[in-house]
Amino acid sequence: MLNPRQIEAFRAVIVTGGVTAASRALHITQPAVTRLIHDLQYALGLRLFERRGTRLVPTNEALSLYREVERQFVGLERIESAAKNLREGRSGRLRIAALPTFNVGFLQRIVGIFLKEKPEIELSIYGSISSQVVEWVASGFCDIGFAQGPLDFPNIDVEWLPLVQSVAVIPAGHRLAAKAVLGPRDFVDEPFVSLEQSTQTRYRIDAIFASAGVTRLTRVETPLSMIACSLVAAGAGLSIVDPFTAAEYDGRGIVVRPFTPALKYDIGVVWATGRLRSALALELADKVRTAIAELARAADAGVAGLPPSGLPVS
């Protein structure tokens, strides 16, 4: 019966050109290589090498056999290489689920960089409301998810990302564009584009305005921040939305300003409980975490009086 070690020794002698070099490549003694070759010839019933002086020269049969052996070794090397790439996150497949605010452009820019760094990976991106994102991840349909809190669902683990602040969006040219930071009283007598009551952000916005004793003139409701921004750009009113969507529409008919008091927007990385997290998913989560931290720092600078436009706090 053939022994894999015999095949290794045979290949090593062919590739390196001799028993001495083969022994070094295999980290065994020269007599051990000679014994493996002898046993292989006996098992195959073939003469594989001829001795010419101090050298072993492969026979025609050996060269024919080597071509078949090399095909098998190339296949094994490809498997080893593929496994190494998967282990180190250089290849593989990743299925991502994210809430709509991430899917307007923020996540796509991160993914674009990710793909340039790892041209051999395959990605799928799905977008829906946070509860659906959780379902996709918990069921195994997606490897990683990004959803808005609260996230009190079974069969998932959540890693919270850095908190960011919701922002005010106003039509370009509006009188409030002259202010660097807006508060509830700036919205008095102004038409308001509101998120629907089904959203967590809507409840928090309502609480802030109620606490300030300000009643908004709500003209339009929508479940999506991207629709709210488009309506603001069309002159339908002012709004308060997440910073990810606002950043995509900034300069496209709207002006973005920090809003106080701070209205935190919490997003978590969603994992399926008990499922192994791939290297690709973990690296993507790190990139998203870094990008959000940078966004949070920029927002904090704006509230402190250093908005991107350079306008002073009034």
UniProtKB/TrEMBL annotation:
What InterPro entries does the entry give? Answer: LysR_HTH_N, LysR_subst-bd, NocR_PBP2, WH-like_DNA-bd_sf, WH_DNA-bd_sf
- CDD domains attached here? PBP2_LysR_opines_like
One short Pfam name that applies is HTH_1
Keyword terms, alphabetized: DNA-binding, Transcription, Transcription regulation
Gene Ontology molecular function terms on file: DNA-binding transcription factor activity; sequence-specific DNA binding
One GO BP: positive regulation of gene expression
Domain spans labelled HTH lysR-type: 2-59
- Statement: the UniProt record of this protein carries the keyword Transcription: yes
**Does Transcription regulation count among this protein's keywords?**
yes
Instruction: Give the family from UniProt.
Output: Belongs to the LysR transcriptional regulatory family.
How is this protein named in the record?
LysR family transcriptional regulator
